[in-house]
Design a protein that fits this description.
single chain; 442 residues; mainly beta; six-stranded antiparallel sheet; four-stranded antiparallel sheet
Length: 442
Amino acid sequence: MGQTEGVIRSLDGGWQLREALGDTWQWYVRKLIDRRNSVTKAADAVAWLPARVPGAVLDDLVRAGEVAEPRHGRHSRDAEWVADRHWVYRRHVDLPPLERDQTAWIEFDGIDPGGRVFWDGHEVGAVDGLHRRLRLRVGGADQTPLAAGGHTLAVVVLPALDTEPQVGRSDRVRVLAPRVGSGWDFAPRMRHQGIWRQVRLIVGRAGLASVRARTEVELEDRTGEVVVDAVIDGSIGAGAPEVVTVELAREGRPVASTSAPVADGAVHVRLPVHDVQLWWPAGLGEHALYDLRVAIGDDERMLRVGFRRARLVANAGAPSNALGYTAEVNGQALPLVGWNWAPADLLFGVVTAARIAHLLDLVADSGARILRVWGGGLIESDDFYDACDQRGILVWQELAQSSSGIASAPATDADFIARAVEETMIAAARLSRHPSLFLWCG
């Protein structure tokens, strides 16, 4: 009998949501069972509300009529209680049959501000931080056999983090949360919670736990290189070693490919590329992009990359020891005309790729060439950076820090600084593939 094919299935639909006070969330994460008491069943049906994933808790409550639209008038004040609760998400997952050497994973791209994950009532993992991905084995090759059919996935989303509002002191900041939600001159106090990025089920022999990519280019002879680092999770069977395949294409035409064996659960690949088409900022040339496919078995990642050399150089006539203040891309100096970018919505999870595309079309139509992504908001979604790549809009990305109305001295708490460094490294690894990313700033 042949082996079952691998599966990659979106789990974005079919979710329900309910409020939890104190430790009551422990009653709601168990596997769904039928009850003989019809009154209990009716109450249970009323308590659970339809939920969107990706989404935001407060948006779900608005659609269910539980709270008034917080963006109107002063209604946000009536919704501030929401962020202080735990919220439980759940959905049914239909699992296909697993072969002996196959594994099943659940993968979350983002839970804000973090949460605990339960599979059939058993805790299988947790995540702390809105920008951290979480990949969990729920059964397979080296675990208890997992039955095909219906299972229950539940997520307990933690209360939102509280930090300094605008009129506060930045040296008192101790948590990495977008400060805009705690109250700013253009934004009410509306702290975000929810499963705000995609969720998927992956079944196969081995999977890509993480993938990061970056490019290098030599302008003189138009040769380039794509550097890929991947971490592999899963069972590596007997026989030929498991390999990771890397393929690059331009406008549907294959350009280069290679493969490399997995060693100690990881792989490092350098893929040379000849006759590179350069990525140029708006107004200077084509925003050439390449499609990068990284795969092991049935699990794959599709990323877009571009080739450009970007740097800051000293102004003309400046002293020899002057810092760089003139932008240069592919050897050509250019003025940085642009705008500030704050989150498109305080409910980050409701912002769609289409909405981002519309706003960036307006940016491009204005003649802007750069966006400064404000540090009081988000390190933005891949949809945002992909849209900037496509339009030739450079990104000035600030770290998760911002000034305050009372005192703007930086925090010196060692634990906070260590956490900030770790979060920055995670973000830098994710964003390094984007040609639009021009500089990082405090």
